[in-house]
Amino acid sequence: MMQLGLFDQRAGRPAEEPARRIYTISEITNRIKVQLESDRTLQDLWLEGELSNWKRSPSGHIYFTLKDETASIRCVLWRSTAQALSYLPGGDGEAVLAHGHVSVYEPQGQYQLYVDDLQPVGVGALYAEFERLKARLAQEGVFEQAKRPLPRFPQRIGVVTSLTGAVLRDILNVLRRRYPLAEVILSPTQVQGDEAPAQIVSALQAVSRLPGVDVIILARGGGSLEDLWAFNDERVARALAASPVPVVCGVGHETDFTIADFAADVRAPTPSAAAELVVPDRHELARQVAQLTTRLAAGMQERLAQQRQRLANELRALRRVSPQAWIDRRRQRVDELAHAIQQAIDHRLELQRERLAGLSLRLAALNPSATLSRGYAIVRHAETNRVVSRVGQVAPGDRLAVQVSDGTFESTVSAAGRHRS
Asked: What are the residue ranges of helices labelled H in 256-283?
């Protein structure tokens, strides 16, 4: 029978089969871990899902599962991180947003999310919607239209804001103090609620159509993300981008950002600051100093933001090679071993309890007291204390000690073989 095999025709001899590369489990697991940690998306990730299996270990670390309708992922929240969070869920069933990075827990060969931030879905959903709309409008170029310079000496200033509240009063006070020559035209609108976006659009369009309007201020006081949501409406953003007059947006406090800020020609940190931006100061020197200060502050903020981002990237890279990651994995392993040991001890104790119960039953069956309680007695010679088990062991006149279930009494053997007490 012919045997098939590799043959090297040039050498005229059988060819050697290529050597197989055999990997260890640790090598492959480490390779997968490196691949995951080199993916930037997986190292800076927000996930939304429902909590299950929420468990805080004795060490303080929290382990849980984040799931949706069709999939789930294991998560771990270290004790030091959990202590620093302002929000922790109450337990299973809550919908949350979790931020962290994906890596492999090598002892089990399982990938999991290492969480460094948790947020309730309510606020997180609005923020996610804000980011989605911002990205879509940016992709469409809504924010990229040429930002028009503000007039140096405006004659007519349009103000779009609410009639009630302190915002309008603050704006008028600033304009009167800095540049009283300008004429102010108010176009009132609601600035909060379901009807606010449509009214803001109408107010912007109405004031921009008036002749001689040089600049428009769109303003609202501070509030929560929900309170400022009217300024995250797509209709408002497109109206700002289409305005024929430059618009300064002064919505909320300095840390508040809305879609309107990106679509407007100028973003001001507060309504009062918006009023200051649209008019010059009475003293030219003071105006120039203020302008340079603003530009410097903006440049420093941008530079600081870039450096903070760079620092964050370096910190993430450092954490990947830090011994702390190795220590954290060993901590998780210790938690698992402690749990396994506790289960083994509980199982061994249960077996010993069952064995003790069986021995107790056997001992109870051999207890003489149990026999006496059923009507039997133990008879002994009163003098020798020897047990009498046969009639031939006693003689008339012998004194006997009879033990029953509740005590002992004496009897004397009669001549006829009966006894009397």
From this structure: 259-263, 271-278
Residue with tokens 């300095």: 254
State the burial class of residue 306 (Cβ atoms within 10 Å of its Cβ: 0-12, 13-18, 19+).
exposed
Q: Which of 92-106, 190-204, 323-337 has the highest mean pLDDT?
A: 190-204
Tens digits of residue pLDDT in 20-42: 888 899 888 888 989 888 888 89
Answer whether residue 8 shows pLDDT above 50. no
* Tokens (6 digits) for 344: 């083994």
Q: Give the residue with greater pLDDT, 5 vs 220.
A: 220
* C-beta neighbour count of 203 within 10 angstroms: 23
- Residue pair 218/203 in contact (Cβ under 8 Å)? The answer is no
Cα 16 from Cα 5, distance rounded (Å) = 9
Sign of CA dihedral 317, 320, 324, 328: positive
Spatial distance between the Cα atoms of 238 and 228, rounded to a whole number of angstroms: 17
Asked if 280 contacts 152 with a C-beta cutoff of 8 angstroms, the reply is: yes
Instruction: Read off the pLDDT of each residue in 107-130 and give the average, rounded to a whole number.
Output: 81
Cα angle for residues 166, 169, 174 (degrees, 5° grid): 125
Identity of residue 215: V
Q: What is the largest CA-CA distance in the chain?
A: 147
- Cβ-proximal residues to 65 (8 Å cutoff; 6+ apart), any chain: 51, 52, 53, 72, 73, 74, 75
Q: Is 155 helix (H, G, I), strand (E, B) or coil?
A: coil
Torsion on CA atoms 65, 68, 70, 74, rounded to nearest 10: -20
Q: In this structure, are strands 156-161 and 95-105 parallel, antiparallel, or unpaired?
A: unpaired
Q: How far apart are CA 342 and CA 315, in angstroms?
A: 38
CA dist., res. 287 & res. 153, Å (int): 12
Instruction: Show the tokens assigned to 57.
Output: 């270990």
Encoding tokens for residue 23?
């990997």
Residue 113 CA to its chain's centroid (Å): 10
Mean pLDDT of the chain, nearest integer: 85
pLDDT score at 85: 85
Which residues face 42 on adjacent strands?
none
Residue carrying structure tokens 């506790």? 342
- Please report, for residues 83, 210, 219, the alpha-carbon distance to residue 43 in angstroms, rounded to integers and kept in the order given: 22, 52, 38
Please tell me the pTM assigned to this model. Answer: 0.44
* 4, pLDDT greater than 70: no
pLDDT exceeds 70 at position 390: yes
| Residue 180 CA from chain centroid, whole number | 53
d(CA 128, CA 100): 16
